[in-house]
Design brief:
InterPro entries: p53-like_TF_DNA-bd_sf, SH2, SH2_dom_sf, STAT, STAT4_CC, STAT4_DBD, STAT4_SH2, STAT_linker
Shape: elongated
CATH topology of the domain at 157-313: Glutathione S-transferase Yfyf (Class Pi), Chain A, domain 2
CATH superfamily of the domain at 157-313: STAT transcription factor, all-alpha domain
Keywords: Acetylation, Activator, ADP-ribosylation, Coiled coil, Cytoplasm, DNA-binding, Isopeptide bond, Methylation, Nucleus, Phosphoprotein, SH2 domain, Transcription, Transcription regulation, Ubl conjugation
Organism: Probosciger aterrimus (Palm cockatoo)
GO molecular function: DNA binding; DNA-binding transcription factor activity, RNA polymerase II-specific
Distance between the termini: 42 Å
CATH class of the domain at 157-313: Mainly Alpha
Oligomer: single chain
Subcellular location: Cytoplasm; Nucleus
Largest sheet: 5 strands, mixed
Structural class: alpha+beta
């Protein structure tokens, strides 16, 4: 079943979540019509490879054209209209930046997987629940409402200033007219009446000046209150959501809404400055005793400028954290001399700033790290922000060719560092720029979340563990000494993040039973993990009891195994995976003989095994587990084919496949049939296909079960015979001779 088919079967509350991230950037209609094709492409790799993204965009447009041809024959006018509009939209938006559509589609697919994983969970995880807090949503709506009200107030004040300007011009004209009269004419009754009218106008002018200043002050105060409270909280919440998204959590949205709020507030403040400048012009033409403009205007202007400075400083954000194109799902882990990408955005989107802001990237600027190593950035480290590279027209800049290089002066210290020291060192990528606009000069700085620098790809798993632990445990964006004394993490939240690793990396998250097994693995006991705090050492530094590796190394090896060798079976949900030997036997003991389940090895790194239940002649139940298959063996033979062709030599010397039903009672071929690579292997005779006198060979996994033991067999009992050897033996020798040879 395709991922999109699974999505369509979700409950309405999950479908509403899906609806939120499909828009004109990537219409759901295209997702629906091209579901299988879209899911068969590697959008993640294309999101960091421009040539690949260009080809995928071209192919996407070709697919849309083919759909257009189909619906044209069906004369579906509405669908024809929508597809033509969508094709034009896709080509127009992404022709100059094909990587952006790859990022969007990759994020959509990843978010679908996360929602599917969440739907399979009995309850929503604590982290995700906190990110979807109804109070937060209510605050978002309040911010947008208040920003709109502030913008309207500033525009209404514009009209008041215009009225004040017109009133003063009329006063100037009438006053100068009287001043131009002869002295004798000024004593007439008509003139005295005019003077009284002018005095009344002056009183009105004074009232209107005070009223306009009061309204301007109110707008400034409302902006100040909004920035100090709700808008700041909104920005901090977005940054926290970004942290969680970086470690596999829900896709973080809301930046476009924040940009709209920041831009409207900036426009309102610049409008206030223009209003104050107009009042200054009016002041130069007319002033009087008790005039409020010279008293209040300087204070209001100073406050407006102060708010603009703060607004700009908060608006400079890292939209997409540093990430190597070769490892798109491991952001913030950077390898020396390997390019990485990072994207920044200015949330104040003003046309006057397009291509006017140059951003400079540096590493470890003005910060002290716990590392003796020092780095510099090679490549293009200065670029201009613009509105042309982003499909949504945001004012942004993306660095695509930066490389961290270790300085020679620090190279000598590497040999003195332990295996975990390098991956626990945190560094910071900093960015600075300057905005010059309407007489203001504002220096802006921001930094990425802490990154880990590695010099060898073998350090990647532990480096990624550090990134997970940091972003799970703190919302401090720059605590580079975090691992001097890393805090414990709530086990319930950590398990949720571990499930995200599976949903984002291999397309299917973990259910409650699988998470319970991991909790026992981490703690060594059955615990109520809602209240349990786990140490960093337990997670990543201390070896598992009786093993030569840590919990995280064991789990990372399983992720790698799934991704490279058994991904379709994992996505279909046929691999139970995380189940202990004890629990495995409890599950199988009452099942039909030949029932089996698949689980990951607890003793071997990156291994998967299967265990089946059998019944002896005396009625006793016995269990058999095959030696775990690792990536080396799975590279030679697909796992589904192994399950299909697996044989054991039983007591009667007749090879047979003992695997009949996948737990609990699914016929094996029904579960795995679509994943078989070919028809069941048969050994051909030399004359049928053997070239140059050779006997063709096939891979057949086979084990031998001794007939003099009723005890559960150790893995060594079920070591497979060489497939090619067995193929030849089966062709030319009798079962009795094969038994003797074995």
């Amino acid at each position: 079943m395709s991922q999109w088919s699974q999505v369509q079967q979700l409950e309405i509350k999950f479908l509403e979540q899906v609806d939120q991230f499909y828009d004109d950037n990537f219409p759901m209609e295209i997702r629906h019509l091209l579901a299988q094709w879209i899911e068969s492409q590697d959008w993640e790799a294309a999101s960091n490879n421009e040539a690949m993204a260009t080809i995928l965009l071209q192919n996407l447009l070709i697919q849309v054209d083919e759909q257009l041809d189909r619906v044209s024959q069906e004369k579906n006018l509405l669908l024809i209209h929508n597809l033509k509009r969508t094709r034009k939209l896709l080509q127009g938006k992404y022709h100059g930046n094909p990587m952006h559509i790859a990022v969007i589609i990759s994020n959509c697919l990843r978010e679908e997987r996360r929602i599917l994983a969440a739907a399979s969970m009995p309850v929503q995880g604590p982290l995700e629940k906190s990110l979807q807090n109804s109070v937060v949503s209510e605050r978002q709506r309040n911010v947008e409402h208040k920003v709109s009200a502030i913008k309207n107030s500033a525009q209404m004040t514009d009209q008041d200033v215009k009225y004040l300007e017109d009133l003063q011009e009329e006063f100037d004209f009438r006053y100068k007219t009287i001043q131009s009269l002869e002295q004798s004419d000024k004593n007439s009754a008509l003139i005295k009446q005019e003077m009284l009218a002018l005095q009344a106008m002056l009183n009105t002018l004074d009232f209107k000046r005070k009223e306009v200043l009061c309204k301007i002050g109110r707008v400034i105060h409302e902006i100040d209150m909004l920035m100090s409270n709700m808008l700041t909280e909104e920005l901090l919440d977005w940054k926290r959501r970004q942290q969680i998204a970086c470690i596999g959590g829900p896709l973080h949205g809301g930046l476009d809404q924040l940009q709209n709020c920041f831009t409207l507030l900036a426009e309102s403040l610049f409008q206030v400055r223009r209003q104050l400048e107009k009042l200054d012009e009016l002041l130069t033409r007319l002033t009087y005793d008790g005039d409020p403009i010279p008293v209040q205007r300087p204070q209001l202007l100073e406050k407006a400028n102060f708010l603009l400075y703060n607004l700009f400083r908060n608006s400079f954000v890292v939209e997409r954290q540093p990430c190597m194109p070769t490892h798109p799902q491991r952001p913030m882990v950077l390898k020396t001399l390997i390019q990485f990408t990072v994207k920044l955005r200015l949330l104040i989107k003003l046309p006057e700033l397009n291509y006017q802001i140059r951003v400079k990237a540096t590493i470890d600027k003005n910060v002290s790290t716990v590392s003796n190593r020092r780095f510099i950035l090679c490549g293009t480290h200065m670029k201009a922000m613009n509105m042309d590279e982003s499909a949504n027209g945001s004012l942004s800049v993306e660095f695509r060719h930066l490389q961290p290089k270790e300085m020679k002066s620090s190279a000598g210290s590497k040999g003195n560092e332990g295996p975990h020291m390098v991956t626990e060192e945190l560094h910071s990528i900093s960015f600075e720029t300057q905005v010059c606009l309407y007489g203001l000069t504002i220096n802006l700085e921001t930094s990425s979340l802490p990154v880990v620098m590695i010099s060898n790809v073998s350090q990647l798993p532990n480096a990624w563990a550090s990134i997970i632990w940091y972003n799970l445990s703190t919302n401090d964006p720059q605590n580079l000494s975090f691992f001097n004394n890393p805090p414990a993490a709530a086990l319930s939240q950590l398990l949720e993040v571990l499930s995200w690793q599976f949903s984002s990396y291999v397309g299917r998250g973990l259910n409650s039973e699988q998470l319970n097994m991991l909790a026992e693995k981490l703690t060594g006991q059955q615990v109520n993990y809602n209240d349990y705090q786990l140490s960093w050492a337990k997670f990543c530094k201390e070896h598992l009891p009786g093993k030569s590796f840590t919990f995280w190394v064991w789990l990372e090896a399983i992720l790698d195994l799934i991704k490279k060798h058994i991904l379709p079976l994992w996505i279909d949900g046929y691999i139970m995976g995380f189940v202990s030997k004890e629990k495995e036997r409890i599950l199988l003991k009452d099942k039909t003989p030949g029932t089996f389940l698949l689980r990951f090895s607890e003793s071997n790194l990156g291994g998967i095994t299967f265990t089946w239940v059998d019944q002896l002649e005396n009625g006793d139940v016995t269990f058999h587990s095959v030696e775990p298959y690792n990536k080396g063996r799975l590279s030679a033979l697909p796992f589904a084919d192994i399950l299909r062709d697996y044989k054991v030599i039983m007591a009667d010397n007749v090879p047979e496949n003992p695997l009949k039903y996948l737990y609990p009672d699914i016929p094996k071929d029904k579960a795995f049939g679509k994943h078989y690579s070919c028809q069941p292997n048969e050994v051909s005779k030399p004359s049928d296909g053997g070239g140059k006198g050779y006997v063709p060979s096939v891979f057949i996994p086979i084990s031998k079960i001794l007939n003099d033991s009723t005890d559960p067999h150790s893995p060594s009992d079920l070591l497979p015979m060489s497939p090619s050897v067995y193929a030849v033996l089966r062709e030319h020798l009798s079962p009795t001779v094969i038994e003797t040879a074995v």
